[in-house]
Design goal:
This protein has 135 residues and is mostly beta strands. The protein has a single domain, classed as 2,3-Dihydroxybiphenyl 1,2-Dioxygenase, domain 1, CATH 3.10.180.10. The chain is built from two helices and eight strands. The strands form two sheets. The protein has a four-stranded mixed β-sheet with strand order 1-4-3-2, with helices on one face. A four-stranded mixed β-sheet has the order 5-8-7-6, with no helix packed on it. A hairpin with a 5-residue loop joins β7 and β8 (124-134). The longest helix has 11 residues, at 15-25. It is globular, with a radius of gyration of 16 Å. The model has no long low-confidence stretch (mean pLDDT 94).
Amino acid sequence: MIFNSLIPELRTSDFAKSLDFYTKILGFKVEYERKESQFAFLSLGKTQIMIEQNNPEWNTGGLNHPYGRGIHLQITVESINPLLGSLKKSHYPIYVKPFERWYKVKNRLYGLKQFLVKDPEGYLLRFVESLGIKD
C-alpha cells in the first residue's frame, strides 16, 4: 500500500456511526482496521483518511462537539452524482447544495462542480469534480 504524504486523522465520539457514514453512505473502503482501538484507515479513490474514537492522550485541548469546527477537507472524485444519490437515499442532509465555480490559478480558470456535507462529527467535506480548464 502506498500512503499519501498527508493523511488526516479525524477524532470521533461514535466510531461505529462515523464508520457507517464513510463506508455505507460515501463508499469509502476500509483498507485496514484496528477494532480494539476503534480505528480505521479509509480510502476513496486517491483520498486517504483515518478515523479513530476520541483518544484524549493525543488531544491538544478540550474537544467539544462538533469536532470539525474551522476545517474543511476537499475530496476530488470523478463524479459527485453517485455521492449525492447515496446521501439522498440515506436521507442524510447536504450542508451546501451542488454548485459550480471557476477558480483563477495564474492565467487559467479551473472549474469545479462541488457540494459540502458534514460528517457525524461536524467535519466539513467538500466533494469536487473537475469541469476542466479554461485559458
